Amino acid sequence: MSNNHFSRRTFLQSSLAALALPHTVLANEHKTNQPEYFETNTLAPATKPIILTTWEPNVPANKAAAAVLERGGRALDAIEKGVRVTEADPKDTSVGYGGLPDRDGKVTLDASIMDEFGNCGSVAALEHIMHPISVARRVMEKTQHVMLAGDGALAFALKEGFKRENLLTPYAKSEWKNWLKEESKKKKLEPPHIGKSNHDTIGMLALDTHGNLSGACSTSGWAFKLHGRVGDSPIIGAGLYVDNEVGAATSSGLGELVIKVVGSFLVTEFMRNGKTPQQACELAVERIARKQPDYKELQVGFLALGKNGDIGAFSLTKGFSYALYRNGEHTTHEAASFVA
Ligand code: GLY
Questions:
Q1: What are the tens digits of pLDDT across the range 284-307?
Q2: Is 301 helix (H, G, I), strand (E, B) or coil?
Q3: Which among 333, 116, 158 has a CA at the least distance from the CA of 242?
Q4: How far is the CA of 190 from the centre of ligand 1 (A)?
Q5: What residues does ligand 1 touch, defined as CB less than 6 Å away?
Q6: 56, 303 in Cβ contact below 8 A?
Q7: Could you tell me the domains of the chain?
Q8: Among 29, 104, 131, 313, which has the highest number of CB atoms less than 10 A from its own CB?
Q9: Tens digit of each residue's pLDDT (9 = 90 or more) over 152-189
Q10: Contact predicate 249/236, CB 8 Å
Q11: Is the pTM of this model over 0.90?
């Protein structure tokens, strides 16, 4: 029977049943090239250019990126342009300006970018700069390094002419003050319930009219995190990976879980080994669920864009959404999830 004949229900039943079994029985992706529970993505075949971005509210970012691609521009230029829209939006409390601070009241930003040649750059725990994605691109293009962090990243950005700004909006500051009053009484930092607040990290993947892929990822990370905490977004292979021969992937959600499985590289590598983007996202989520006993309380979402324009989207728990630009149309969708 072809994979197409298996429904979402079949996937969930098979996956949840599998979770009750010992690990040796669980490793089904190692046993067969065609696990039975995959669902193919039901959206129409793709026409270049394509933009695939985490979270519904990121349609304006996709519009900015689409304008570049429709002029025949490079995917790399498109994704930088698109992500900058969200970074500058004070209403988005998970990315750039307006992002919720760490427990010390500091807005620290993570971002990464990767092009069709495998070049990449990233910044981690960067303060005071509204567009970490552009600093990440500068790291990629103007240094011999891949990643700059903290004060070094800030010094580099200032030297490159980026403006030093206060990124803590009055709203984010009041949220932090509330958190200090209530949440800090608790011993453990609560994982963010991403999806309930309707969005999180922006991860954007694009396929340009020349058939080349690029990707970008930007976030203020886990709200009220320990100062110095770095998530998956700036870690190449975790929050973002681009392999121009096969596809690209990005993630949103609890970065610690993504880092532990090198999530975006894992998704891309599944595609390299013949899986569709949808199958690849499902396998990566399944890998996390298998290793994380409390996975039902947590959220991670993956997006994947294949070299042929096929897309994949899948999350641990309900609520992960994405914005898609394809065939000249902007649409939004909720991803299927491992936990119904
Ligand atoms: N996925 C964003 C973070 O965990 O920082």
A1: 999 999 999 999 999 999 999 999
A2: strand
A3: 116
A4: 14
A5: 201, 219, 221-222, 231-233, 252-255
A6: no
A7: 46-337 (3.60.20.30)
A8: 313
A9: 999 999 999 999 999 999 999 999 999 999 876 776 76
A10: no
A11: no
